[in-house]
Amino acid sequence: MKQFQFDVQKFRSHFPACELQVAGAPIAYLDGPGGTQVPQSVVDAITGYLINDNANEGGNFKASYKTDEVEQAAFAAAADFLGCSPQEVGFSVGSTQHSYNFSVNIAKTLQPGDELIITEIDHRCNSQPWRRLAAQGFVVKQVRMDLETQQLDFDDYMSKLSDRTKVVAVNWASNALGTITDVKKYIDAAHEVGAVTVVDAVHYAAHLPIDVKAIGTDVLLCSPYKFFGPHMGLCYMDEKLLGSLDFNNAGAEDISQGSRKFHMATPQYEFLAGMTAAINLIADTGVEYAECFEDELEGLTGRRRNVVAGMLAFDAYEAPLAARIRRGLRRLPGVKVYGPAEGEPRTPTVAFTMEGYAPEEVTKVLGDKGINSWHGDFYAIEVISALGLEDKGGLIRVGLAPYCTESDIDRLLATVSELAYAKA
């Protein structure tokens, strides 16, 4: 990588929320793992559509023509974000809806006794829909998390994988711990026994580029509200798998082919416009920093190249800041930092606990000072249970987005330090 210097102030200028204050200080948006702030371009795209072009599709008038364009533009933008064709992406109100929708429809192709694999490190989005299928006679197996490394146990996975396995649902990055899993290894093994793979990339997609063809998954879930867009779900499904499934959608006789199978009803067109604007912001950022990542961008062109460059720039900026948070927290008495060891793949999400404080107490103190953070289980309930924190209020979680600053980290560490030494 060539010399890299991220212009965080320029990036922050896109986000009206970065002008807001609490207790006389700019808000430190360290709550990114739960959803990011949105740039003005996304706000403008959503409101612009609603004011100027609000109509259903398929009509012979200007607003309806524009709606058709908005939807096609969203398919193209999502395809560039994920590295696939526009016919392989679809939208919904959230990734959880996509997960349930897919599980219900693929279950029609299964037989009682068929096996499904989920993991202990997953968000409920990618595990609960499969658990529910046990009531239909399917066998659901769960891969354990290694408590020492806080990574998924591949040996345990291989011990559960068999020729009876029909679906493997695996998490790419833990929204609780930041642990990144080598999903390609899991996908390749699953395909050897003929299983379909579902990757939850909701947390991963906010921080690193995605190439669905490179990892070879059949299905991938992510959510644009985690990367500057509106609250909605984005799903990739391999074209062959998509064509083979009979989805339970209204008006199926009209939308039986291609990516429209994903939609349970009329799409949220204004949110599609907003998602496209969010992806375009990532691409525009990538144009500025592409020369720093020439080796990683080899062979890529157009908006896809710029999206990948933008995500690589975000990672290059965020990773050192997250490392600084972890170092700072580990120096404090009574503070325990969770997640994989330093040097292991991880996102810029930091989870910790403090002796003498319930996680909710800590986030309340931080919030009163304008430092946004989260506490609890974050719907990664099995992770919290495995760590023995279910009855202790779970974890305190902070996470970075590219608009976060060194000053945000200074304030976080100073406040946590005050709390830690008050109990020392």
Task: Please provide a written account of the structure.
With 424 residues, the chain is of the alpha/beta class. It has two domains: 151 residues, Alpha-Beta Complex (Aspartate Aminotransferase, domain 1); 235 residues, Type I PLP-dependent aspartate aminotransferase-like (Major domain) (Aspartate Aminotransferase, domain 2, 3-Layer(aba) Sandwich). It contains 14 helices and 17 strands. A seven-stranded mixed beta sheet has the order 4-12-11-10-9-5-6, sandwiched between helices. Helix 3 packs across helix 10 and helix 10 crosses helix 11. The radius of gyration is 22 Å and the shape is globular. The two termini are 43 Å apart. About 2% of the residues have low confidence.
Shape: globular
Total DSSP helices: 14
Mean pLDDT: 94
Secondary-structure content class? alpha/beta
Strand order of the largest sheet: 4-12-11-10-9-5-6
CATH superfamily heading of the largest domain: Type I PLP-dependent aspartate aminotransferase-like (Major domain)
Helix amount, in percent?
25-40%
